[in-house]
């Protein structure tokens, strides 16, 4: 049986988790933190799309401290805010461990630079999460992606239980091509033993002078994280029909949404809604007592906000 490994570090060990929208980063992070000792303080820093912070509610239910940076890509738009957030975390929270989740396809190297430039932090590892179902939708063959891949310590191929053997082989081919020489793990549900996720050897990142800066010529108007638009709704009063929401989602499934997530107060009680492309899942959240919150993410979807809001409101009981 694997045991808990204590990594002796003078500074706070920091893990960066990156991957595309809907790949399962949040599930992996929450599962990791739940395995750590109760007296082990972990702070989860994430940047969210939209104004409806669904994951904060989930984290709060798991006694996880979270700090969010809203609306943007950590690697470009919010580098200054990231540094401020790191400084604030070190000053006020003094965690035993820090986990940084980068939204969407954010390139991780500038995030790593900020870790290195912040006193009291030490990079423990960079983890890339790949969606075995929808990886083709986010395939990136650019030189930028290949340069960024060199900094990855571990690749997790998630959602393997949702594909057949042939599809899994194709996903594995993609992972091996995108991340040659990097250790890889497969999981069906985002559950990875903590000893595989912490104490990683960030072998390349400690020597950035050995490489060209992969961010130097980055065109932020290409196929990067800011091409994803987001909007959200909060409703403090109404109860919603799960059946009506399922029907509404079928109506909008071809409108360009890549991720929809929310905590919905339904006739069955509060439930977590998670939609990745056209796959819909619901999960009970029995201890939640807040308002209904839902966020829609996709490409060129802001023009649909009023129409979607009306459809969503019509799902109320």
Walk me through what this model shows.
With 317 residues, the chain is an alpha/beta fold. The protein has two domains: 12-210, P-loop containing nucleotide triphosphate hydrolases (Rossmann fold); 228-313, CobW-like, C-terminal domain (Hypothetical Protein Yjia, Chain: A,domain 2). It has nine helices and twelve strands. It has helices at 25-34, 54-61, 79-92, 109-117, 143-149, 165-178, 194-197, 242-252, 305-313; strands spanning 12-19, 42-48, 65-70, 97-101, 121-131, 154-158, 184-186, 229-235, 257-266, 269-276, 279-284, 292-298. A seven-stranded parallel beta sheet has the order 3-2-4-1-5-6-7, with helices on both faces. A five-stranded antiparallel beta sheet has the order 8-12-9-10-11, covered by helices on one side. Helix 3 (79-92) crosses helix 4. The chain is globular and about 50 Å long.
